[in-house]
Amino acid sequence: MKRIPGSRCAVAITLLLTMAGESAAADPARGRDIAERWCSACHVVAPGQLRGSDTVPTFAQIGKSDKFDEAGLSVFLAAPHHSRMPNLSLTRSEIADLVAYIRATKP
Ligand code: HEC
Description:
It is built from five helices and no strands. With 107 residues, it is mainly α. The longest helix has 18 residues. The termini are far apart. The mean pLDDT is 82. Bound molecules: heme C (HEC). The site of heme C (HEC) has 21 residues, from α2 and α4.
């Protein structure tokens, strides 16, 4: 077996990480997609949505509320302990997109 020279391997890994880092920039449009897919069964995630559970806050309410700043929202979404909210095992970039989307509703 031939060994891959360590330095070339490190370059490849660095490149991959850089690319992943770029695509991880928060994108509210992607956040809305994720919200419609994963959150809309319970939350009203967008103004046009007709149905959600009436016992959970809408994304507009969450966005406007002072309960969570961006960091607080990210922490909550990473691990919603002690809450009726399920843990959806979101990735960090999904969380960043969702937070960007939710916060975009804040005036
Ligand atoms: C199975 C239903 C369900 C799904 C799916 C769901 N949630 Fe929730 N969520 C809840 C409930 C219920 C609460 C209220 C929790 C409580 O009061 O303890 C909540 C609360 C929250 C809160 C905190 C609001 C506050 O003011 O305390 C945030 C933020 C939130 N959800 C975001 C999301 C996001 C983002 C998604 C999609 C990735 C999502 N939720 C998917 C049921 C759900």
